[in-house]
Amino acid sequence: MKEEIVKTLAAEALVVRDNAYAPYSQYHVGAAVISEKGIIYRGVNVENSSYGGTVCAERNAIFAAVTAEGTSMRLAGVAVATSSSPPAAPCGLCLQVIAEFCEDEMPVFLVNDRNEITQKKFGDLLPVSFRPHMLKKS
Ligand code: THU
Predict the structure, then answer these.
(1) Which one of 13, 54, 105, 108 is CB 3.0 to 4.6 Å from 32, fit for a cystine?
(2) 116 is known as an active-site residue
(3) In ligand 1, which atom is closest to the CA atom of 25?
């Protein structure tokens, strides 16, 4: 992925993080995903007083992408912004949702509010995943 796009994606994740609704954990997360069409979608964590109703930033960004592009939406890159150092990786549930829409080679950029950035391959974050084709009858 071009350096300019990486910078944009990381910056978008950091900026949108300001909109996180996290009154319970105080842990603010922003996510920006870019689809193969080259369009960027954003998401933040949205918590709920019934804690199980909370949805992570990554999933909110991906759901926005699918809402806009429909079933053909494929991810080309994901950036997640937190205050953690080293920058935090997506949770297991979000990795499973990301797996639905990407290849193992897709880059995941982990960033924080100190402008630290770590790049991972999706397949290194979730090496063995459950994928849509596994539901096909043999
Ligand atoms: N959170 C995310 O938004 N993404 C993750 O990958 C991990 C956790 C949120 C959920 C909750 O609002 C807060 O961070 C603390 O777990």
Answers:
(1) 13
(2) no
(3) 15
Residues 106-124 have a mean pLDDT of: 97
Q: Which amino acid is located at 56 in the chain?
A: C
Of ligand 1's listed atoms, the one at least distance from the Cα of 29 is 3
User: Which CATH number applies to 3-135: 3.30.565.10, 3.40.140.10, 1.20.1270.220, 3.40.50.10140?
Assistant: 3.40.140.10
Q: How far is the CA of 137 from the centre of ligand 1 (A)?
A: 35
Q: Using a 6 Å cutoff on CB, does residue 54 contact ligand 1?
A: yes
Report the nearest atom of ligand 1 relative to the CA of 28. 14
Task: Identify the active-site residue in 58, 69, 100, 103.
Answer: 58
What pLDDT is attached to residue 137?
A: 87
Contacts (Cβ under 8 Å, ≥6 apart) of 37? 69
What's the Rg (C-alpha) of the chain?
Answer: 14
Residue 72's CB is within 10 A of a number of other CB atoms, namely 9
* Mean pLDDT of the 89-108 span: 98
Closest CA to 118 of 43, 14, 38, 10: 10
The Cα 124–Cα 127 span in angstroms is 5
